[in-house]
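Lab notebook, bench 4. The sequencing result for the construct came back, and we need a structural model before the next group meeting so we can plan mutations. Quick request posted to the team channel:

Model the 3D structure of this chain.
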Amino acid sequence: MKENESKRKLSKKIVILVVTIILVVGILAMILFNQRASRYTQEQHLSRVGERIQKTYIDSNLSLRAYGAPNEEMAEGIKATSFDVYPLYDENDRLKYCLVEFYPYGFLFVLIRDERLKGFGWLGASTSMYLLSSVQGEPAWTPCTVNEENGETFWEQDESGEKIRYYHSPFSVRGVQNEKKYLVEYHHNGSTFLIPAIKYENGYINLFSNEVFDKRMTAVSASYSFISKKHFDL
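Done. Here's the predicted structure in token form:
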């Protein structure tokens, strides 16, 4: 009896040890095989993002949002026919994002970061090095300015008094595609907004308003963000 009990205890210890080793090796593998964004050059990141965009949007049946444009063929969504990828920088001049400009319409942003633990992908967590701001493309946006005295937003309107809507990025609409492009953080009332901008003297031009960016109060036409879910992995 004692001998059988000893064998059972030994078997149990062996099983626990094997399971522990497997878990440790698995965790180490997930950590060691996660790639860092710094492994790639800017050109390589743009190429990698471009390859994924080509496969996801051009070579597949996936369409971009309809945008609500007054064009019947756009009613059920836009099928992108081509695209361009541009580097975007943060305030430290670090490559942190990409801009994807689709044709005939649409755009989105891509966040570049270190890969996350692959083991959490089955839980729906984001694991990719590249994270989309929107799967269907960002909504149309309207240029605007803000009254610094009362914070009221004034929207650009057409002759009929309707908001003017643009279906390409602020960088494209403002004609600054060939300049160094930024997404600058703006903190207001506990929220953080990413403002499309270009450098100007010692500061930036907010492309939503085409005015000098003022961190105390600035115009915000759209809210760009990145949700860390597998649905947004590129």
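Strands lie at 82-89, 95-103, 107-112, 130-132, 144-146, 153-155, 181-188, 191-200, 203-206, 211-212.
Will bring this to the meeting.
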